[in-house]
Amino acid sequence: MNTSALAARRWLPRLLLACSVLALGACAPLERQPNEYQVGRSRLNLPAGDWEDLGTTDTVYPLPSQPGGSIALQARTLVLHGPKKEVLAVLRVQTNRGNFEREDVLWTGNCPRQQGMDVEDARSGSNVRVDCLRMKRWADGAWMDKYQSEWAQWLAGRKLAPLQPASYISYRYGMDRGALVVVDAWVVQNLLRPPTRNNHEFLVAGRPAKAWTEALAQAARQSTGMMDGTFTIPPFPVPAGPRS
Q: Residues of the signal sequence (predicted)?
């Protein structure tokens, strides 16, 4: 046996061991980070803050294009508390319970317009996806009871509502094979709208909120293409702190 063959025999066990260690490392779950929660197939990462986890529930999303058809989802609701334990934000995220194993899904749901609500429908009439971002800048309890009655009643049963004034943001994104993420956020405006001291600051004060909602939508879209469903909620434009 030549020198090359002997060297190969000597190093082969070590090489196999090294490959095994690398393979196990690649398969090992990533270490859980602070403010990270699992919801369905997604790893939900929250911005810094005092978050309270209200747990998960199993839900379904009906498919109007398929009578009797639905997509199995899991929902997780979390509450952001302020320095005095006041409610600053309530966030609910719903995602697929497992990976996408359906036939192609036709999305017939619309992105409804409503007076006083900013609406961005990026699907442009397509039936292969849904991409609906909606924001109500002034969403008090009465408005929530009327237009988001199911979630509002669920929150009312737990005596949860952000300080007023607050905004409501919703986003739905669905793709072929049943990829779906649904986000609802009820957020005190102090986190979305910076203080204003003059006319110019007042006129541009709404821009951070718009930028945050668009960043939220982008993160939700990206989560459907991630192997582990990583969904990183962007930091609020204004850090949580004592109310003036």
A: 1-25
